[in-house]
Write a structure and sequence with these properties.
The protein is α/β, with parallel strands linked by helices and about 350 residues long. The protein contains 12 helices and 12 strands. About 40% of the residues are buried.
């Protein structure tokens, strides 16, 4: 069994007007020590999947069905207290904004102490040594442990929150767009730190981002999400150069490629479908330039392709022709034609 195995995961959000089916039928596996990137447009379900793994869904959210097995234990069904004890020790979280996650009125070391006392017996000297080593691991001087968050730059705060997340050497680290809002130089520093600590600690990583370029550099596995579903999943080194799903191809077309600086960038016209009443057939059909009658009538189930990836597209075998058409600009999206 894989270290992290998700089967048939459905997550619903209750709202005043309707129940939103935010995740539907998510299946994926990650081996110990691997890094998985979750990518897709805003609202596709990336952060909800990360929150479901952590069992930190908002009050109106619930896991409606499915399993989330971590090292054999279904953490989707354990009681709240058991899950609370697993967080930080077995599963840790790096949030999008360290500025809103760190207490502004206590030093960083005090925040290490508070986390330590929840899960371990008090041992201030041992904790100090551990915190200093973690700060060195994320390329911060240990003297900053006695500083307050407002004395840190944005990149330093983000590295400090990574150090806090690694306090108990968790086996799984979930990072939800941790470089958002940072300039490109600081973003590079934070990504380098994440790669370094993952390698040093052998941590399994789930990394959420809307940036394919970041995922390509950081993650060995890639899961492309659209409208609450997984449309393509496999090895990053296979998917990035040759995506097979029309949505993945379109995402790649929307991001710059330093190898082809002359390629014009194009956004994907239209909007994702309503999650209150998602399509019963292909969720991308309304925005896909290659959609046919079958796509609008029959749901494509994820299926294994020759290189081991899984793709939810009826016509994935025609990916080479679709890539050539989209990247050349010959493919006309439904909204563009209007």
């Amino acid at each position: 069994m894989s270290f992290l195995s998700i089967r048939g995961l459905d997550v619903h959000y209750a709202t005043r007007g309707a129940t939103l089916r935010v995740l539907r039928g998510i299946d994926l596996d990650i081996e110990r020590g691997q890094s998985l990137g979750l990518v897709g447009e805003s609202g596709c379900g990336k952060s909800t999947l990360a929150a479901a793994i952590l069992r930190l869904l908002p009050g109106n959210g619930r896991i409606a069905s499915g399993e989330i097995r971590l090292d054999g234990t279904d953490i989707a069904s354990v009681d709240a207290e058991t899950m609370r004890l697993k967080r930080w020790k077995e599963i840790a979280y790096v949030p999008q904004s360290a500025a809103t996650s760190l207490s502004p009125v206590t030093t960083l070391f005090t925040q290490f102490v508070e986390a330590w006392n929840v899960h371990a017996k008090p041992d201030r000297q041992r904790l100090r040594e551990r915190a200093e080593q973690l700060f060195r691991d994320v390329e911060l001087s240990p003297r900053w442990l006695d500083a307050y968050p407002h004395q840190f730059s944005g990149g330093m705060r983000q590295r400090a929150i990574i150090a806090l997340a690694l306090l108990f050497e968790p086996s799984l680290l979930v990072a939800d767009e941790p470089t958002t809002g940072l300039d490109v130089i600081v973003q590079r520093q934070v990504l380098d730190v994440i790669k370094k600590v993952q390698r040093q600690h052998g941590t399994t990583l789930v990394f959420v981002s809307h940036d394919i370029g970041v995922i390509a550099e950081l993650c060995s596995r890639l899961a492309v999400m659209y409208a609450g579903e997984l449309v393509e999943f496999g090895a990053t080194r296979a998917i990035i150069p040759e995506p097979w799903h029309p949505y993945t191809i379109a995402l790649k077309r929307a991001f710059p490629d330093i190898r082809h600086p002359d390629h014009e960038l194009h956004s994907i016209p239209g909007q994702p479908p309503s999650l209150a009443d998602p399509p019963r057939a292909c969720v991308f059909a309304a925005r896909c330039p290659f959609a046919r009658e079958r796509c609008r009538a029959e749901k494509p189930m994820p299926r294994a392709m020759p290189d081991g990836r899984r793709v939810a597209c009826h016509f994935a075998e025609q990916a080479e022709a679709m890539r050539a058409s989209i990247m050349s600009g010959a493919a006309i999206y439904p909204m563009e034609a209007a």
